[in-house]
Design a protein that fits this description.
41% of the residues lie in helices and 22% in strands. By secondary structure, it is an alpha+beta fold. The chain folds into two domains: 210 residues, Ribosomal Protein S5, domain 2 (2-Layer Sandwich); 171 residues, 2-Layer Sandwich (Alpha-Beta Plaits). The strands form three sheets. Strands 5-4-6-3-1-13 form a six-stranded mixed β-sheet, with helices on both faces. Strand 10 and strand 11 form a beta hairpin. Helix 2 packs parallel to helix 3 and helix 9 packs antiparallel against helix 10. The protein is globular, with a radius of gyration of 21 Å. The two termini are 30 Å apart. The structure holds adenosine-5'-diphosphate and magnesium ion. The site of magnesium ion (MG) has 4 residues, from helix 3.
Length: 398
């Protein structure tokens, strides 16, 4: 499978969100926003330790169409599920107020609430419809695409000024507090700050955000390979890893693992989960910077090696991979067409990102897919990456 032409992946959700809005509310929306999904090239499980990440925003994403409602009510339509919900908003919305809401509504209503707190609109009554081209729950961050599209559309509706980092933080707060996922800020920042033809280097301590050059397409390309594995226990495993990082930082008397001195002898006597957290996060931060340097120098071999090391650290040290993804990484990395491949995102299934020789993706899959099917009984598929701009208000949609 190849990624849709960028216009289809972007325009289709916009059209569907607008259509759903009109169907539900009998009028055109006032504002429409689009926010992309993301793939992280390197730097996973570092965002919540104030480390470095290097994502790309994709051409697939979520669209949100909004308008005001006269009464103090919020009405939300999820076009992809053909479902809708309604809630009174005459006071602050607390997470427990959403106990009877469907899962998807926690993301949308949670973002409405955190965005309201951040942007302080004069009146809160709103209607919205959302539609997405990001596959749900596969690791390309459909959740952040939804949150950022909602926050961006509300920003337009309320004519609010809020900077991109604060908008991303409001979206993260919604996911943390209303959807119950203790994620870092990577996905939301990637969706806000993506840039056409570039990756984005983010320092999650200083919030310095810079474009990073990608190899010329006639030299190498990044592709995504789906393992066809979706694991459901990610929230608790994710929370455990975060707790190990926070425990290690507390034991070493530092604010976050960003500050650890790797020659500190006390690391060796930490509980094993904390020691592994230190090893993964400090080495991964180092790899992000070396990977960026390697790409800038055109040293694809070195860049690929950092990806392979990153996968090994995530799998063997930090234990956030799974057997199927490890088999897929082994098969992909064995090919001469591949400089390096690694799991991307939170882990426990989802996608590999691979740096490959230009145009070799289909040939690669001809060998990898049958071998993967034979070993794990699943269907591996390829998706080309179209590095795209971050979230934006859409100018015209009628
Ligand atoms: P990922 O972000 O990797 O796709 P998550 O589990 O973090 O996976 O988020 C997926 C959840 O986000 C879905 O189960 C749903 O609740 C919500 N979501 C994402 N996109 C949509 C959408 N288009 N419509 C409704 N809910 C969505
Ligand atoms: Mg998500």
């Amino acid at each position: 499978m190849t990624e849709h032409a960028s216009d289809t992946a972007t325009i289709d959700p916009i059209k569907r969100a607008v259509h759903a809005y009109r169907e539900a509310f009998g009028e055109m929306p006032t504002r429409v926003a689009f926010a992309p999904g993301r793939a992280n090239l390197i730097g996973d499980h570092t965002d919540y330790c104030e480390g470095f990440v290097l994502p790309i925003a994709l051409s697939i994403g979520c669209a949100c169409a909004v308008g005001s409602a006269e009464a103090a009510s919020l009405e939300v339509v999820a076009a992809d599920f053909n479902e809708s919900t309604r809630l009174e908003v005459d006071g602050p919305i607390e997470p427990d107020d959403l106990n009877d809401q469907p899962g998807w509504a926690r993301y949308a209503i949670g973002t409405f609430e955190t965005a309201s707190r951040a942007m302080r609109p004069a009146s809160r009554g709103a209607r919205m419809a959302i539609a997405s081209s990001v596959p749900l729950g596969s690791g390309l961050s459909s959740s952040a695409a939804l949150e950022v599209s909602v926050a961006m559309a509300l920003k337009g509706l309320w004519d609010a000024s809020i900077d991109g980092v604060d908008l991303a933080r409001a979206c993260q707060a919604a996911e943390n507090n209303y959807a119950g996922m203790p994620c870092g800020l990577l996905d939301q920042l990637a969706s806000v700050f993506g840039a056409t033809d570039h990756a984005v280097r983010i320092d999650c301590r200083t919030m310095d955000i810079e474009r990073a050059e990608l190899p010329n397409r006639d030299v190498a390309e990044f592709v995504l390979i789906d393992s066809d594995v979706r694991h459901s226990h990610t929230t608790s495993a994710y929370a455990e890893r975060r707790a190990s990082c926070e425990g290690a930082a507390a034991s070493l008397g530092v604010r976050s693992l960003r500050d650890v001195d790797t020659s500190d002898e006390r690391i060796g006597s930490l509980p094993s989960d904390q020691r592994d957290a230190v090893l993964h996060v400090t080495s991964e931060n180092d790899r992000v910077l070396r990977f960026i340097d390697a790409l800038a120098a055109g040293d694809l071999k070195a860049a690929g090696e950092r990806m392979v090391e990153s996968h090994r650290s995530l799998s063997e040290t930090y234990r956030v991979s799974c057997d199927e993804i490890d088999v897929l990484a082994e098969l992909v990395n064995a090919s001469d067409d591949v400089f390096g491949a690694r799991m991307t995102g939170g882990g426990f299934g989802g996608w590999l990102v691979a740096l490959i020789r230009p145009g070799s993706g289909e040939r690669l899959m001809e060998r990898v897919a049958p071998a993967y099917a034979e070993r794990v009984g699943r269907n591996a598929t390829l998706r080309h990456i179209v590095p795209s701009d971050g979230a934006r208000l859409v100018e015209s949609w009628s």
